Amino acid sequence: xxxxxxxxxxxxxxxxxxxxxxxxxxxxxxxxxxxxxxxxxxxxxxxxxxxxxxxxxxxxxxxxxxxxxxxxxxxxxxxxxxxxxxxxxxxxxxxxxxxxxxxxxxxxxxxxxxxxxxxxxxxxxxxxxxxxxxxxxxxxxxxxxxxxxxxxxxxxxxxxxxxxxxxxxxxxxxxxxxxxxxxxxxxxxxxxxxxxxxxxxxxxxxxxxxxxxxxxxxxxxxxxxxxxxxxxxxxxxxxxxxxxxxxxxxxxxxxxxxxxxxxxxxxxxxxxxxxxxxxxxxxxxxxxxxxxxxxxxxxxxxxxxxxxxxxxxxxxxxxxxxxxxxxxxxxxxxxxxxxxxxxxxxxxxxxxxxxxxxxxxxxxxxxxxxxxxxxxxxxxxxxxxxxxxxxxxxxxxxxxxxxxxxxxxxxxxxxxxxxxxxxxxxxxxxxxxxxxxxxxxxxxxxxxxxxxxxxxxxxxxxx
Length: 463
Prior knowledge:
With 463 residues, the chain is an alpha/beta fold. Helices cover 31% and strands 16% of the residues. The strands form four sheets. It has an eight-stranded mixed sheet, with helices on both faces. Helix 2 crosses helix 10 and helix 9 crosses helix 10. The longest helix is centred in the middle third of the chain and has 23 residues. It is globular, with a radius of gyration of 22 Å.
């Protein structure tokens, strides 16, 4: 046998051995969660609902998010956990609603030095000790602990908005455009993510990778070439800010690089890519102070049109966000009207990874694996109601979504509102007076849950 033949035979034996070991270990899927910051449901060029032409932007261009939709499933009723950043980010890690987690007491109740709450990376380690996890970008739990403290192997640390800003003053961040070769650190975050993926693939380790972008949170940063493209574009009726459009397209390019890397590494048949935002877009740039106004009072569409409101409120514009998943056995170019929320990610990841145990009783999320793999919509999918809460001293409010109805409890006004989302996605017509029994049913369900989880709001307001 010559040297070349010996080398080929040896390579075959080695390759076969590695394959057998992988099969014996029952190789687990990889998960990549891409989290955008302050991005509305209608702000991408992907039509989020086939039945609603206005569910995509009339100005912004996001071809890579379109690519995800073409190869995955869109959740027309996919929700962030909250209308602001930190509660959503906390919720994702633990699979719990912000109402359960609280705001004032979150740091004390969830600090890993004193409490053992199950997080996504810890869960995956239980499933398979070979799982590796990383978090790059904006952490922003505002609780004085880092990703490493709850199980991540690699991270950028306890980061927040300041780490993605250029330290503009409070006015300039809304009005100025800042040119950069690495706007909002999109390039550097993406490079770290690509490097992590390469290393784990070489080592044959399954992985969970969370890429939490600082974009599209103001201040507005963009590459010069992208900004020039949008300066030349004709504004739409709802969208027309060239700086925001350029920053969003820079973000979209970074998303495309992650998808390209998955295919380059040959792991596309074993990798789920999840894309969503931490909350909806602001209504206007610069933002107005009155955030709870009925959209019928406006003279022209706002950023999240046809949805009402935006960041900071629990109207649909604040919490309904782009929510797309692509991966093995998911039929591309499909949509489902099944309602899901960001706190459903932990149990869904557990289900897809083959978790056999019982999740803790304080997990609020429900797995939507069957929807991903079988594309079942609301006619065959039932779940517990979605319950949201906005902690704010000036306008605290809670929401419950059950079927086609949504009830809003305005604690500061001692008032309720009821909307039929299937008929009034813009939440213009309060029908609580027309359907008092339905309003009462949803209100009782909401209060029952808030009492069950000892929600902080009940310490100040009595139902």
